[in-house]
Amino acid sequence: xxxxSTLKIGISACVAGEKVRFDRGMKPSGFVLKQLIEHCELVxxxxxxxxxxxxxxxxxxxVGNINGVEVVQPKTGNxxxxxxxxxxxxxxxxxxxxxxxxxxxxxxxxxxxRVKVYLENGMRSDVQGVGAFTAALMQRFPWLPVEExxxxxxxxxxxxxxxxxxxxxxxxxxxxxxxxxxxxxFHTQHKFLILSHSPELYYQMGKxxxxxxxxxxxxxxxxxxxxxxxxxxxxASKKRHVNVLEHMQGFFxxxxxxxxxxxxxxxxxxxxxxxxxxxxxxxxxxxxxxxTANPFLLQQYYFxxxxxxxxxxxxx
Length: 316
Prior knowledge:
about 15% strand; four-stranded parallel sheet; 2 domains
């Protein structure tokens, strides 16, 4: 039985394999339905059906220009933009419990970016839009990781999205209804993970944690969550990974012999120049952390930001 602590991901119903598209079709995501589903609960939602449009149905499109767009059903002339946008605040309790959302690419209701926009005469516009439902979702919940099904085929974007949803879920479970010490622990355990994404935001977050007693707790939590998810939305780069690995290496200055230090330096350099994947130096550092019983390193989510059954880092 699923517990309240289960990670919940919102998802366009067609991407979850339900036949709810305008033509009775679906767009199932292999990654979601074969791998991610083993570690989360999918909260399936079809905005178009939720406003009363059945299956099959006449197609919708974004119509407008640089000054704004409207979701229109060309055959009938009916407009649905406002109805789709209003679904988000109307379902606030549902969406606020999510740790991420996967939407359908190119959809006038669900598309996240580069959705086709048409002029009123039916010609294609140079403007590209965002689906009405997804635009409202991202505006109402700016910290929520949102990704398109098609972009999840990119290994870097997929790894980043999965890292974000599990990081947000831990924050929701450990800090959202916790106390000051829980935020300190969270920030400590995520130090190197956040540094691999945005050192600048990590240090800003550190100031907020250090000064949290000067502000109302709710304000601290909201501001920290905002900075955390802004930081994690920045894909981790090889340069930042190398900086983190070298920072961790410094913990063994007095506990490793010369040959072990040289081997670790060689592996980090090999990763830097592309001869080894990230997992090579990371695995050795974790081994040395266990061997030297280093409690600070062993608690770091950098080593495993999501379940080990999702081997997404092996190609990085």
